[in-house]
Amino acid sequence: MEKGEHDLVLKGTWITAGRGRMITAAVGDHTRSGRIAASLYEETRPLTPLQVKLLDLSRVISRFGYLMAALIMATLLVEGYFSGAYAGSPVDTAGYILNICMLAVVIIVVAVPEGLPVSVTISLALAMRKMTRAFSLVKRLLACETVGSVTVICTDKTGTLTMNRMEVAEASVEEPVSRSRGVPDTPGGWITLNAAVNSTADLETREGRVVAVGNSTEGALLRWLVRHGIEFTVLRAQFPLVSQELFDSRKKMMSTTINVDGRRVLLVKGAPEVVARLCNPVPDLEPLSRLSERAMRTLAFAHGELSSHGGASPPLVWDGYVGIRDELRPGIAEAVRSCSNAGIRTKMVTGDSPETAKAIAREAGILGDGTIITGSEFRALTGEARRRASLELDVLARSEPLDKLLLVQDLQAHGEVVAVTGDGTNDAPALRQADVGLAMGINGTEVAREAADIILLDDSYPAIRNAVWWGRALYENIQRFLVFQLTINVAAAALTFLAVLLGMQPPFTIVQLLWINIIMDSLAAIGLCSEAPHAALMEKRPVPRQAPVITPYMKKAIGFTALLYVVTGVVVMVYGFPVGFSVGEQSTAFFTAFVLAQVWNGINCRAFNGVMPPFFRGNPVFFLVMGAIVLVQAFIVQFGGAVFGTVPLSPLQWVSLAAVTAPVLLMMPVLRYFSDS
């Protein structure tokens, strides 16, 4: 498009003057679609529930780490004063103080969860890969967790709950009738001819699927004919058009004139109440009302012979009707029920009439004790009245894109965690506003996909349910990892402090503590955050925004297990291993036993809340990671003495250490007992 000499460009808007008229045309970001697209990059996202909880937890753990480091450093400095460590040369004194400072720094490194963000990112990445296999393409990593906290799902109807494929579900005739050239002599024959010829649609095969080109309702009629072995293209060739009046929303019908055995016949299809008024006798429309109650779009057929001068021979002959509907996707009712059992309420947002929306919502299991309200009624409400309506409604019918955005905002004002689906450009603001935006991967626009956090690759509601399932599994896996990490944090810091307090050498060298830190951070995250979801995840309510990430069960698991480590560790530090280890092997045995105890405790952490998942099948990655930890530990002990301060152990000593630390597994029934009591 080129601008003329009288054109003026003002902030992306063309103002064209000519012939006494002024025409404005917006371009780029100044169009409605452009404004929506540009708005996607203007606002920042609020922190997710998980981010808030982990930030609070990190502050608490950091304070603990700094406190332990300060206590250890102060104790060693005081002990050095009384033991005469400062009586030597300045170099020796500086070396002693430097070693104390290095130990304090390592304690902080071990105790402070500096690896927690990395570990969570690893967990999110693993969950993202698995969710993609479940037809949910994650664009924003943190959405993996947020979707597990969802309390309300606002879903579209067409394409998400339904197949987005109109089909003939019922008809007044058992099946269409194939006729060769000549006058059809039955209602079924006339309906067949009408459906094939009185139409502007066509069918094409794309990627192995037969799709309609043109009007979806007419496409449904053509597929109906094809399913019964009728070639509509042959009928069109046999009965060419003389004239045609396309469907008009005011007339609510379409008509086509054809030649049948030298006579002109008018074929009419349209709204039953309109077509029925043109027929004599007027047919009974009661059966059609029942179809409407089942969310079917009804279409009536009639024909009449035209006189020689072109006028219709009144009245028309009623031939029958069909009921066309967009069927629910398989598994919709089950998925909605599963979300309901999980404390998640589903609200349907559709442009359909209240009657059609009610039928679909009832069939999908969405319509419960809530209400059906239209978009215009919802928009007319203000303030608290609209927020209260947002909680009470199950179906928002005759809705516009703005209604979806208002619904999301009102639900969030009540503290709900909202997921919303969308496929059009106008849905982008609601997708962006929601805690989790779910765009359609097949029928969604580029702007909608850009605004979303997750793209549903099959456009279906069951994919949302699966995404929630994986999100909840991710949250629980992160809790497993935190139990594992914090147990080591508390035990390692407490053992080091008590050793110093008792006047003994710290139980671990600086390099050994760094290896323990690697175990509890990245390796543990990979092993424990690969746990597959289990059915019980969809049988409990969503975790509230305000709920702490550390549950009472986790506190017991961390406290009891760390106490076991500390008590046993102090006894070993004071008295040594009773048999089988020389004095020079004691520190190596202590270090190795501590690492092996973490491997056993990893199995306990898998049994979150005292319930053990499928042992091997549930998470084979866990055993690979734990096996790798044991192998690296063996390599360190047998060959890394110069760096790690260890001495080689015999096979019998390795077996005895594994047996001595195995009772850590008994913590699982103990925790289950205290959790049930």
What can you see in these coordinates?
It is built from 25 helices and 19 strands. It is of the alpha/beta class and 677 residues long. It has three domains: 114-129 and 472-676, Up-down Bundle (Calcium-transporting ATPase, transmembrane domain), CATH 1.20.1110; 135-162 and 330-466, Rossmann fold, CATH 3.40.50.1000; 163-327, Calcium-transporting ATPase, cytoplasmic domain N (3-Layer(aba) Sandwich), CATH 3.40.1110.10. It has an eight-stranded mixed sheet with strand order 4-19-18-17-5-14-16-15, with helices on both faces. α17 (446-451) links the parallel β18 (436-440) and β19 (454-456). α4 (116-133) packs antiparallel against α18 and α18 runs antiparallel to α19 (510-528). The longest helix is centred in the C-terminal third of the chain and has 41 residues, at 461-501. It is elongated, with a radius of gyration of 36 Å.
